[in-house]
Structures are given as structure tokens and as C-alpha cells.
């Protein structure tokens, strides 16, 4: 069937056809026709956020927790600029989003019209692709392609800028799928010859490590299963980036923990001493490699990545396998067949030696709650419920990565690449929309939580029982730590002055507020949070000046890890200071 | 602290793209955003229905950076194909220049003589000036311009290069 419909209507129908359940958005002049088309439409739930950055992060959280694309709808100008942080965040972490922005009418584009901004220009380098649609007849095919681009290959945000007149003008709408020529065809399977080489490298390895990343999560649950199969077959130990946590179960004897700047001693030492590194959907990020010329110096490297441009970007690899993680892992497993892999007992014995260093151990004291202990208890008391954890950015994020443990993909939502404070609360809201019955907790810092704290209202409005667990150290802890370690403790502007009373703030928004001031209240506080059938803020007062260890200082090698605070000198060279 | 730079090579890339709005900004912007160099860039549509354009980019950088440039270009959705001519065996590259020279007497005669040697064609003439059209490899154009400097050079316009693999096959 085909009939004339307005652009706004075509947009809504196209979203429905894509199976969209939720749109995270905020209205304004340039999207009024779309909001009118959404009015009383039962097929799509619109979640009204309190700030457009919240919309983008909520869509990210929804996407990360469900594996489906997140959809954002915001107005032109300030709506689009406010959303941009979340778009950039999704770009860095390869999260599939479709972002619809209103634009001023085509006739006034370029005239500095009211609420005009060059959204296409601004988003060009933080989207996987973007479109300005000037003709309603192009809308259906554009939206269709946008979803395909956002969700296939290396996922990412795709932005569609729709001028107001295009939303109002009409075009033919066909019920069937719009005819378009498919121009985006990412390669999903690796070459057979390369697989054969990979198989013989894996079979010959004496000290292999599987180094996994967010690509395993993005590829879908099958990739995590196949990773486990490959591990079981080879016996190789597994480490993961921040983004990949959950792909491999943290209770496995062969789990090394996270690697990199705040990774475990055993993970970093294993990377340094390995003779073969199989990188699965990770990208040799600077937070992972430490000093490049000292990174895994004596190993062969196989790199599985669907994005060719990730290969050899920072670290030269011996064998690139360009393709989807799940498909390439299946190809490798096929190839391995009954191949005998090496006996790894010597290698594992060395790893056990490194594990003995107990690099995640931390001091406890009578006077204050150790933040790591709070995370540990939070983990122990919630693990049976298979919770979804989001975080903000800072020390608490690293402590969550170190001391909360994950057993399945899509349970861990964090801003890795961009490191965006303010991500965690809206991401938790998005995740809760997708999983209404799950326990969703944002592990937060006292500074980060204030960046999108307005989203408390969103949770209240939609009765989303998200929990925010603040490790309140009264500092921008991670900044304070770097100032202590590299600027001789000159704590310039890193104190969280004038903090609100988080309990009263919770109550003001209709949430429950719980304060934990002493270790003796910790378990009861956590239990109170779990038991409350609604949103809760827990303001957990922790030790104020704890640093996050272990740590590889800027510009240092994996082997130069600081395990504890007493190894810290407090100053570094300008070269080290200049590193990111 | 000093900031160090590494040695670079010149490469000529041809990029076939969908001829859509904003494509040049997308390509040029990718170069600036990632800190790559563009020495020259030319673009024109090459199909009958104007749907596909060919862009020729001259860039320079260390080999691993040039490799990255190619893959970053391939990652853009409207890009169909990227060929590094410099890596793909012998190729020709040509550039067109318009060069205005003003002068009278001996200098004017000399300019015309040099132009003949270079096979530059006068496409506009007044009693005291020429506009020469010259096609060739960029070095040839450079040399011609250098000679014209002493002979009354007024203005130079260059297209930037286009390039193509030698032989019968498409790159
Ligand atoms: C939007 C944004 N601005 C600034 C930063 C830089 N930054 C990184 S961590 C941090 C401090 C975070 O403090 P808090 O949320 O209290 O967490 P803590 O480190 O104390 O656990 C800052 C300012 C950032 N990551 N994101």
C-alpha cells in the first residue's frame, strides 16, 4: 500500500518498521512536527529526558544493555549541541545510535536563523555517518540506511538532520521496505589462508594471551560464547580492556582481570611476556599499551577487528584478521579442529606467580570506608541478581572495573574512549528501560554524578528503579590523584566544594536517599538500596584521599607498574606530563 | 621539552566517492581532524549521470601514516575505492597551470622562447602580457614558474594533479 504522508509521519513509521521501542528525546521548535506525529502513538515510547546529553547517554545505555540501536530525538541548535557529547561518546565506544535532529527550514539554512547550528558540520567527525535530508521522499530510505550503518560493521552513531519543512511536506510512503541500493557492505569473514596461519600460530604458542575488547560485546552474545570455546580449547589466559568486561567470566581460573593503566599485575605481565597475543575486538588503546616501544616486545600479534583502520594504527601486528569477532572466532575454532595445542603449564605457573602479588589488594582502616571495599560488598551482595552496572568517570570507575566482577556481556556500561563524566546515570536509565526487571546500578563519584543529575527527574517520571551508588570522597579523586602523583600535590581546583546533601536531593526528586558513614552501616545501606522498589541514591562516604592502584604511570612500560602508593615519587618529567 | 617530527614520503591517492553534498568537507575534514597533510586535492565527477566523483589527493607522511590515511578514507561510507598510486606500480600524474607573465622587449621574447621549450601554449595575449597554459608533471610546472620569475611573472593558477596507473587495467 502506498499513500501520501508527511515527513514526520514517514519518520515515525520508519522507526516502527525498524522495531524501535524507545526514543530518548527532548522537544523544541524544529521538531514540533515529529512530536506531533508521536503524540498518542502507542507503538513507540518516548522517554523525556531533562537535558539532551542525557538523551544520548540513555540511548547508549539502552544500546549497550540490549544490543539494539538507541534512538535519540532532539531539536536544532542547542538541542543538537547538547546531545553532541553523547554522540561523540558513542562514536569512541562504537555504540549503535540513530540520532534525529531537527533543523531550521531549508529556505533559511545558512542565514543564522533562530536556533540554527551547523549540526552536520559539527557531527561529521563524531558520527559514523550523517545526513541532511532535504526531500521527504528520501526520508524512508535514509532512515533505513542509517539503521544499517549504525548496527553493522563497527557500530557507531549515525545522525539524520531533518529541516522543519521536510517534516511537514509530504511524500509517498510505501508499506514495503524502501528500495535502496546497498552501498555499505562491511567484510565479516577473514580469508581462509589467514585463518590457517592464525591456527598454526595459536597451536604453536607457548605463552599465548587472549586480549579482548568491546568488539566482542558489540559482535553479540555469540562472540562471547565462542571466545569461551576458544579459551577452553587452547587453555590460553584471558585479559580484557575496560570495554570488554563481561565477555569472559571473571570466576574462571584463566581470567587475568583487566589490563592497562589500572589493570592487574598478572594481566600486564602476561602481555609483556607473551609469545602470542590474540587481540579480539580491541584496539591497542594508549590506556592499554603504556609505553609503545616496550609493549609486548617479544610476541607475535594476531588482531581480529571489523574495522580495517584499527589495524596497525598504533601497534604493528603480524596477522590482521579483518572481520566480525563472532565469525572470525568460529572460523578459527573450525580451523583448530582437533589440532593439539601446546601444554601451557609452565606459562600458567608463571602467571600464578604474578597473581601471588595480589595487585588488587588494598589497605583497610578503622577510620574510613575503603572505596574498594564498598565496591566489593556491593558486588558480593548483588551478584546473585545478575545486575547491570554503569559508571561515571574517575577512580570509582576503575575501582568498579577492578572489584566488581562480570560473568556475561551487556552488564557493564561505561564511557571508555571519551571518558565522559555524567554518562552513568542516564546510561542506567536507558538500560533500565530495556530491562525493566533488572537491578541497574550506577557506581558514581561525587563530582561526576552532578554532571547529569537532572536525569533523576526522568527516572522518577517513568518509575525507573535505578540505583546510584556514590563513592563520595569529596574530591574529583582521579584529578586529585594525578596532581598528587605528577604535580607534587598541588591540588588545583579538584576539591568538590559545596556538595549538595545527596539524601535530601534524592528526597526532593521523590527518590529514596541513604547515607552510609561508617563501615558498620555498609551492608545495611546496600541492602536497603536493593530492597527499595524505586530509585535510590546511596551517598557512601569513603576515605577521602585513597589513590587507585595498581597503576602504570604515563609513559611507563607494563613492567614498570606501581602496585601501591608507597612507590610514588610525586613528580614526573615534562615528556611524561605531556602524554594523554 | 621539544616536539619531534618523523620523516615523511609523498603519496598520490585516488578516491572514488558518491557525488553527494558535503563529500569534500567529509574528506578534507577527516584529514584535518586526524592531523594528516593535504598537499593538493582535485575533484570532478566522472560518470555520465554525475553520481560518482574521483578525487586525487597528494599527501605526505611516514609510511604507516599513509597506510592509515588509506584505511580511514575507506571507512567513510560514501567512499567506494581508494588507490595509493605510489604503491601500485608506475603511474602518470599531470597537472594544468595557467601562468600570467607581463613584460616588453627582450623579456617578452625570452618568455615566449622558454614557453616553446616547455610546450606551454599562450591562451591569451596582449602587447605586454601572456597567459600560458602548461600541462605536465608538477616538477615541470615548478621549473617553468621558476624561470618565469625573472621574466615578469604576475600570477599563477594550478589545478593540482590527477593521476592514473599505466597500462590497460583499472587500478
Ligand atoms: C566531562 C568531563 N570533564 C572532565 C573530565 C576530567 N576528569 C576525569 S576524572 C575527573 C574527576 C571525577 O571525580 P568524581 O566523579 O568525584 O570521581 P572520583 O575520581 O573521585 O571517583 C575529572 C574531572 C572528564 N572525564 N569528563
Automatic annotation (TrEMBL), chain A:
Residues 6-121 form the Thiamine pyrophosphate enzyme N-terminal TPP-binding domain. One of its GO terms (biological process) is isoleucine biosynthetic process. One of its GO terms (molecular function) is flavin adenine dinucleotide binding. GO terms for cellular component: acetolactate synthase complex. Residues 393-540 form the Thiamine pyrophosphate enzyme TPP-binding domain. Keywords: Amino-acid biosynthesis, Branched-chain amino acid biosynthesis, FAD, Flavoprotein, Magnesium, Metal-binding, Thiamine pyrophosphate, Transferase. Its EC number is 2.2.1.6. Transmembrane segments: none annotated. Binds 1 Mg(2+) ion per subunit. Binds 1 thiamine pyrophosphate per subunit. Residues 195-332 form the Thiamine pyrophosphate enzyme central domain. Pfam families: TPP_enzyme_C, TPP_enzyme_M, TPP_enzyme_N. It catalyses: 2 pyruvate + H(+) = (2S)-2-acetolactate + CO2. Pathway: Amino-acid biosynthesis; L-isoleucine biosynthesis; L-isoleucine from 2-oxobutanoate: step 1/4; Amino-acid biosynthesis; L-valine biosynthesis; L-valine from pyruvate: step 1/4. Its cofactor is Mg(2+); thiamine diphosphate. CDD domains: TPP_AHAS (cd02015), TPP_PYR_POX_like (cd07035). This is Acetolactate synthase.
UniProtKB/TrEMBL annotation, chain B:
InterPro entries: Acetalactate_synth_ssu, Acetolactate_synth/TF_NikR_C, Acetolactate_synth_ssu_C, ACT-like_dom_sf, ACT_dom, AHAS_ACT, AHAS_small-like_ACT. Dimer of large and small chains. Pathway: Amino-acid biosynthesis; L-valine biosynthesis; L-valine from pyruvate: step 1/4; Amino-acid biosynthesis; L-isoleucine biosynthesis; L-isoleucine from 2-oxobutanoate: step 1/4. GO terms for biological process: isoleucine biosynthetic process; L-valine biosynthetic process. Keywords: Amino-acid biosynthesis, Branched-chain amino acid biosynthesis, Transferase. Transmembrane segments: none annotated. Belongs to the acetolactate synthase small subunit family. It comes from the Bacteria. Catalyzes the conversion of 2 pyruvate molecules into acetolactate in the first common step of the biosynthetic pathway of the branched-amino acids such as leucine, isoleucine, and valine. Residues 12-87 form the ACT domain. This is Acetolactate synthase small subunit. GO terms for molecular function: acetolactate synthase activity; acetolactate synthase regulator activity. It catalyses: 2 pyruvate + H(+) = (2S)-2-acetolactate + CO2. Its EC number is 2.2.1.6. One of its GO terms (cellular component) is cytosol.
Amino acid at each position: 500500500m502506498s499513500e501520501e504522508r508527511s515527513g514526520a509521519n514517514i519518520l515515525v513509521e520508519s522507526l516502527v518498521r525498524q522495531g524501535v521501542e524507545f526514543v530518548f528525546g527532548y522537544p523544541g521548535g524544529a521538531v514540533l512536527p515529529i512530536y506531533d506525529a508521536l503524540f498518542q502513538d502507542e507503538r513507540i515510547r518516548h522517554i523525556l529526558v531533562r537535558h539532551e546529553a542525557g538523551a544520548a547517554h540513555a540511548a547508549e545505555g539502552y544500546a549497550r544493555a540490549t544490543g539494539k540501536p538507541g534512538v535519540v530525538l532532539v531539536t536544532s541548535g542547542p538541542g543538537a549541541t547538547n546531545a553532541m557529547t553523547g554522540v561523540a561518546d558513542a562514536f569512541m565506544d562504537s555504540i549503535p545510535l540513530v540520532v534525529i535532529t531537527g533543523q531550521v527550514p531549508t529556505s533559511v539554512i545558512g542565514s543564522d536563523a533562530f536556533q540554527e547550528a551547523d549540526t552536520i558540520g559539527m557531527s561529521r567527525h563524531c558520527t559514523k555517518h550523517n545526513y541532511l535530508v532535504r526531500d521527504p521522499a528520501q526520508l524512508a530510505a535514509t532512515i533505513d540506511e542509517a539503521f544499517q550503518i549504525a548496527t553493522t560493521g563497527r557500530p557507531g552513531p549515525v545522525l539524520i538532520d531533518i529541516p522543519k519543512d521536510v517534516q511537514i511536506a509530504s511524500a509517498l510512503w510505501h508499506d514495503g521496505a524502501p528500495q535502496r541500493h546497498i552501498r555499505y557492505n562491511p567484510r565479516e569473514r577473514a580469508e581462509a589462508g589467514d585463518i590457517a596461519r592464525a591456527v598454526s600460530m595459536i597451536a604453536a604458542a607457548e605463552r599465548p594471551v587472549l586480549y579482548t575488547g568491546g568488539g566482542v560485546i558489540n559482535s553479540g552474545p555469540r562472540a562471547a560464547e565462542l571466545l569461551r570455546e576458544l579459551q577452553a580449547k587452547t587453555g590460553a589466559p584471558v585479559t580484557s580492556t575496560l570495554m570488554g568486561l563481561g565477555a569472559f567470566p571473571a570466576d574462571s581460573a584463566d581470567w587475568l582481570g583487566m589490563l592497562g593503566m589500572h589493570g592487574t599485575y598478572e594481566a600486564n605481565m602476561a602481555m609483556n611476556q607473551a609469545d602470542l597475543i590474540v587481540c579480539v575486538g580491541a584496539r591497542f588503546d594508549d590506556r592499554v599499551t603504556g609505553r609503545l616501544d616496550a609493549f609486548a616486545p617479544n610476541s607475535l600479534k594476531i588482531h581480529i577487528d571489523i574495522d580495517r583502520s584499527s589495524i596497525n594504527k598504533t601497534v604493528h601486528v603480524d596477522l590482521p584478521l579483518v572481520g566480525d569477532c563472532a565469525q572470525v572466532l568460529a572460523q578459527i575454532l573450525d580451523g583448530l579442529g582437533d589440532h593439539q595445542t601446546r601444554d601451557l603449564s609452565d606459562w600458567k605457573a608463571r602467571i600464578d606467580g604474578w597473581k601471588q602479588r595480589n595487585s588488587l589488594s588494598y589497605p583497610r582502616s578503622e577510620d574510613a570506608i575503603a572505596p574498594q571495599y564498598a565496591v566489593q560488598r556491593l558486588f558480593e551482595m548483588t551478584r546473585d541478581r545478575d545486575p547491570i552496572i554503569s559508571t561515571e568517570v574517575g577512580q570509582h570507575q576503575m575501582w568498579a572495573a577492578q572489584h566488581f566482577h562480570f560473568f556475561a556481556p551487556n552488564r557493564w556500561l561505561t564511557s571508555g574512549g571519551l571518558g565522559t563524566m555524567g554518562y552513568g546515570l542516564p546510561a542506567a536509565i536507558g538500560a533500565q528501560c530495556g530491562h525493566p526487571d533488572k537491578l541497574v546500578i550506577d557506581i558514581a563519584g561525587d563530582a561526576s554524578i552532578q554532571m547529569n543529575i537532572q536525569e533523576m527527574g526522568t527516572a522518577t517520571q517513568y518509575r525507573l528503579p535505578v540505583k546510584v551508588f556514590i563513592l563520595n570522597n569529596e574530591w574529583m579523586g582521579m584529578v586529585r590523584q594525578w596532581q598528587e602523583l605528577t604535580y607534587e600535590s598541588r591540588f588545583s581546583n579538584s576539591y568538590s566544594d559545596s556538595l549538595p546533601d545527596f539524601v535530601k536531593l534524592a528526597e526532593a526528586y521523590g527518590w529514596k536517599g541513604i547515607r552510609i558513614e561508617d563501615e558498620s552501616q555498609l551492608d545495611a545501606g546496600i541492602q536497603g538500596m536493593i530492597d527499595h522498589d524505586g530509585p535510590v541514591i546511596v551517598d557512601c562516604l569513603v576515605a577521602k584521599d585513597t589513590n587507585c592502584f595498581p597503576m602504570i604511570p604515563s609513559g611507563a612500560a607494563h613492567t614498570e607498574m606501581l602496585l601501591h602508593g608507597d612507590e610514588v615519587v610525586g613528580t614526573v618529567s615534562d615528556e611524561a606530563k605531556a602524554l594523554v | 621539552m621539544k616536539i619531534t617530527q618523523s620523516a615523511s614520503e609523498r603519496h598520490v591517492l585516488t578516491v572514488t566517492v558518491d557525488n553527494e553534498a558535503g563529500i569534500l568537507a567529509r574528506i578534507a575534514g577527516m584529514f584535518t581532524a586526524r592531523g594528516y597533510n593535504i598537499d593538493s586535492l582535485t575533484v570532478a565527477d566522472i560518470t555520465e549521470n554525475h553520481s560518482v566523483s574521483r578525487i586525487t589527493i597528494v599527501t605526505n607522511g611516514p609510511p604507516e601514516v599513509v597506510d592509515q590515511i588509506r584505511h580511514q578514507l575507506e571507512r567513510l561510507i560514501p567512499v567506494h575505492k581508494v588507490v595509493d598510486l605510489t604503491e601500485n606500480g608506475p603511474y602518470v600524474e599531470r597537472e594544468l597551470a595557467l601562468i600570467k607573465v607581463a613584460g616588453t622587449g627582450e623579456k617578452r621574447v625570452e618568455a615566449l622562447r622558454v614557453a616553446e621549450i616547455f610546450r606551454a601554449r599562450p591562451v591569451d595575449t596582449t602587447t605586454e602580457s601572456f597567459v600560458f597554459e602548461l600541462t605536465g608533471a608538477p616538477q615541470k610546472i615548478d621549473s617553468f614558474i621558476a624561470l618565469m620569475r625573472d621574466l615578469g611573472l604576475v600570477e599563477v593558477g594550478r589545478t593540482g594533479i590527477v593521476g592514473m596507473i599505466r597500462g590497460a587495467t583499472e587500478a
